[in-house]
Amino acid sequence: MVDWERYYSGLHAASARKQHEVRDTLQRLESARDLMHERFSDPLDLDAVARSACLSRFHFARAFRRQFQITPHQYLTQRRIEHAKALLQYTRLSVTEVCMAVGFSSLGSFCTMFARHAGYSPSRYRRIVVGSLGIPPVAPPIPGCFLAYFGASTATFEKSAG
Length: 162
Fold this sequence. Notes:
Elements: H1 4-38, H2 46-52, H3 57-68, H4 72-90, H5 95-101, H6 107-118, H7 122-133, H8 144-161
Helix pairs in contact: 2-3, 4-6, 4-7
């Protein structure tokens, strides 16, 4: 004869353990996603991010995709491209400098991925977006030697004019 009470209490205990494991895995995945979000410009690879979540790389990749509907590599690439767009819009950094600043090690792969995500090459994106937003181009930085040489006379001029 089956002891139904014991059977159902065993199922309930197994279900509770499973729910705890799911919550724990979700916390680990969110922690790994936060790591990728904050350190997107660092040379992160799947092994390092999976290690931070205390999961194997294969289990991490499957669980991440199941939870967030995107692979870890796609998430990291999207984050890098988002930041690259902002740098192209609001700074005078060259495309190569933007490429390195957002964590790409190859200009060719950066340009390819940027064009795939944004629809334009980085330089064309800069021309189109900055022009369409009406944002005035950022003034080029003044060299430090120029400021050092002329800084005192400018301050003296401002005092006498004020």
